[in-house]
Amino acid sequence: MQLPLRQSWLTKPEAGFLPGMATFAWKEGMLELLVDLIDEEVITTATAHSQRLWEHGDVMELFIQRAGEDGYHEYQVAPNGFTLSLHYPNGTCVTAVRRGESGMEEFLMDEIPMAEVSMNAEGWSVFLRIPLAARPGEKFLVSCCRYDAGNGRPTIISSTSPHPTRDFHRRQDWKEFVPLTG
Q: DSSP 3-state assignment of 105?
């Protein structure tokens, strides 16, 4: 499944928006995600895993939820290879973090996904492999999102999901993904 990153909450992309493409696949019990990002200025100040990567510059995010479950995972990758892995037991957890009632650290996972980052003339790419046990026909909801940072300008965000507002955690907007098993 191939999906473009876009700004669906806007009538037209904001100035400086650069495209990206996310390709989802399932192979041998693993969700594979390849994301190609056009980027004129690849930036990050991240220095370790499990930091708030979106506060450090460019970042690619993957959200995944097994259909019918309340909990979901969020994986982030910075251009220098540092990652962040979170598991939210339900949607109220994100609301609690945003309100300051809970810390993001409560939802950190020890598991760091297999992430490979490469730079190219047009920007950067991420290849991510996440363990994903699936039964034939089982459905998942997925979304790939991006923070495109730049010196002297606000960060520009985009997503593969048709969000009507700037909120990547709106699971009702995520795309259905059915791994091909057997």
A: helix
In a domain, 182, yes or no: no
Enter the tokens of residue 137: 């026909």
Please report, to the nearest 10 degrees, the dihedral formed by the alpha carbons of residues 81, 126, 9, 3 taken in order: -160
The alpha carbon torsion through 34, 122, 7, 75 (nearest 10 deg) reads: 40
Report the DSSP beta bridge partners of residue 36: 21, 125
The 8 Å CB, 24+ separation contacts for 67-71 are: 67/138, 67/139, 67/140, 67/141, 67/176
Q: How far apart are CA 126 and CA 37, in angstroms?
A: 8
Domain that holds residue 62: 2-177
Q: What is the CATH number of the domain that holds 81?
A: 2.60.40.1190
The string of pLDDT tens digits covering residues 72-88 is 999 999 999 999 999 99
Residue 52 placed within a domain: yes
Residue 117 falls inside a structural domain: yes
pLDDT digits (tens, 9 = 90+) for 15-52: 999 999 999 999 888 999 999 999 999 999 999 999 99
